Amino acid sequence: MMTERAEGVEARVAAPHGIVSVRAARSEDVPAIFENIGHWAGQGKMLVRPMQNIFENLRDFFVAEVDGDDGPTFAGNGALHILWGDIAEVRGLAVAPGVQAQGVGKAIVSACEVEARRIGIPVLFAWTYSVGFFEKCGFTLIDKSKDLHPRVWSECLRCPFFVGCNENGMIKRLDGVPMPKNLPEAPQAQVPPGIR
Ligand SMILES: CC(C)(COP(=O)(O)OP(=O)(O)OC[C@H]1O[C@@H](n2cnc3c(N)ncnc32)[C@H](O)[C@@H]1OP(=O)(O)O)[C@@H](O)C(=O)NCCC(=O)NCCS
């Protein structure tokens, strides 16, 4: 897979139906992001995300588009949400139905990684059922019973599976990004019952 950077574009890959570009999300993208997440949430693949939540966190989001003869077409979305000075979560990742398995998901995660590097965040985290996909993106599984960063529970309080969560925690250490100097210790978050 070819990945490159261009002005305003965080990742670009060649896919069977055209070139896929990933860029920072804009306000006009929100209805498509909302609908895409809702589609997969309806299938139990991810947490539903209210439209207000998407607007409030829009600077976290990236949008992937396939360049076609009629212009760019929405192909997926994902977000990088900073949890603490040393860790950011890849969340809200959803590739549009019909463009799965063409490198779109990997391109969005790549854009998140570029952004984390720019900010100086050395670790990416994800809660996921798609372990194989994240392994292909360089993530490794962690032991939920002991290896979790104290800030990774930020969205658990609005999750219907708050008790009895069966998602996997995965991390990726970004080579060449040092731990921030003078990093304050992260405050302990409430740990959902049933996980530890
Ligand atoms: C999971 C998801 C994001 C993957 O995106 P995608 O565009 O289909 O995946 P890609 O084409 O970028 O795949 C990248 C690599 O991961 C592999 N891969 C993709 N899904 C996989 C899976 N479920 N299991 C194992 N490997 C997988 C691909 O074969 C590919 O391997 P390669 O690099 O050797 O060619 C996408 O299928 C999706 O949106 N699913 C529904 C919502 C969801 O589950 N979101 C994740 C919430 S954390």
Characterize the structure shown.
With 196 residues, the chain is of the alpha+beta class. Helix content is 20%, strand content 29%. It has a single domain (11-173), classed as 3-Layer(aba) Sandwich (Aminopeptidase). It has helices at 30-41, 51-56, 104-119, 131-136; strands spanning 11-15, 18-24, 61-68, 71-84, 87-95, 123-128, 140-141, 168-173. The protein has an eight-stranded mixed beta sheet with strand order 1-2-3-4-5-6-8-7. Coenzyme A is lined by residues 40, 45-46, 93-95, 100-106, 126, 128, 130, 132-133, 136. Coenzyme A binds at residues 40, 45-46, 93-95, 100-106, 126, 128, 130, 132-133, 136.
**Bound ligands, named by name, code or SMILES:** coenzyme A
Helix and strand string, N-terminal first?
Answer: EEHHEEEHEHEE
Instruction: Report the portion of residues in β strands.
Output: 25-35%
Bulk shape: globular
Q: Roughly how much helix do the residues carry, as a percent range?
A: 10-25%
Strand order of the main beta sheet, please? 1-2-3-4-5-6-8-7
Total of DSSP H or I helical runs spanning 4+ residues: 4
Main sheet attributes: strand count, strand direction, barrel closure:
8 strands, mixed
Number of strands: 8
Q: What is the CATH architecture assignment? A: 3-Layer(aba) Sandwich
Low-confidence stretches: 1-6
Distance between termini? 39 Å
- Secondary-structure content class: alpha+beta
CATH superfamily: Gcn5-related N-acetyltransferase (GNAT)
Give the CATH class: Alpha Beta
What is the oligomer described by this structure? Answer: single chain
User: Which fold does the CATH topology refer to?
Assistant: Aminopeptidase
**Mean pLDDT, nearest integer?**
88
What is the radius of gyration computed over CA atoms, rounded to a whole number of angstroms? 16 Å
